[in-house]
Amino acid sequence: MPDAHKKHIVVVDDDSEIRDLLSEYLGVQNFRVSVAADAVELDRILASGIPDLIVLDIMLPGEDGFSICRRLVTQAQIPILMLTANSDDTDRIIGLELGADDYMEKPFNPRVLLARIRAILRRADPETAPLVAPQGKHTALGDWTLDHQSRVLLSKTGQRWNISGSDFNLLMILIENRNRVVSRETLYHSIKGREPSPYDRSLDVQISRIRQRLGDDGKNPRLIKTIRGVGYVLAEQLEAR
């Protein structure tokens, strides 16, 4: 019988050596691990319950990792760490735009992967996330309302959007500091749990994704404004209730 106290990690990779390596390594680190070689096997696992995190390879037989990520982020709030064998930034940017929480390039150091997983899980867990919600249970963001408890964006037309732990934390930091500039370094450390590398664009991609969801014009944003060379600011007067 599965240990309910252990975090459940699903590793999706068509390379059996990687599946076996991560299954053994993460198991020793006190995680409950399930493995899948493709989308079909992943869906069988998901039918039995929602895991705490998915490690998802991009290059898979049948449905690829991008397609899987796209459909999962619209169905459930499952943190996703994507694996890519491509050293080019393209795969990473696409994955982040689709809603992945982080990415790693193959080959990877299992210790680094473990650190990334733990950081994502801390940010996704309401009890350990380093954020305090502003007064009230909802915040109006343009035509959308953020429900703090369910982590769902609700539109005036009745649309619902489950927001990932990483995106939720980013929005909450900006809401807590509304009308004040938050530096890129502060945001990156809070959201990614590590220092930014010189050419890492993941924060910019994440901001762009949130703007798109909120209907905020990236070229002339009304809500999340870019302060060049400094960081970002949530500039609209918000209503918490």
UniProtKB/TrEMBL annotation:
Keywords: DNA-binding, Phosphoprotein, Transcription, Transcription regulation, Two-component regulatory system. Residues 136-236 form the OmpR/PhoB-type domain. It holds the Pfam family Response_reg. The keyword Phosphoprotein applies. CDD domains: trans_reg_C (cd00383). This is Response regulator. The modification 4-aspartylphosphate is found at D57. Residues 136-236 bind DNA. Residues 8-121 form the Response regulatory domain. InterPro entries: CheY-like_superfamily, OmpR/PhoB-type_DNA-bd, Sig_transdc_resp-reg_C-effctor, Sig_transdc_resp-reg_receiver, WalR-like, WH-like_DNA-bd_sf. It comes from the Bacteria. The keyword DNA damage does not apply.
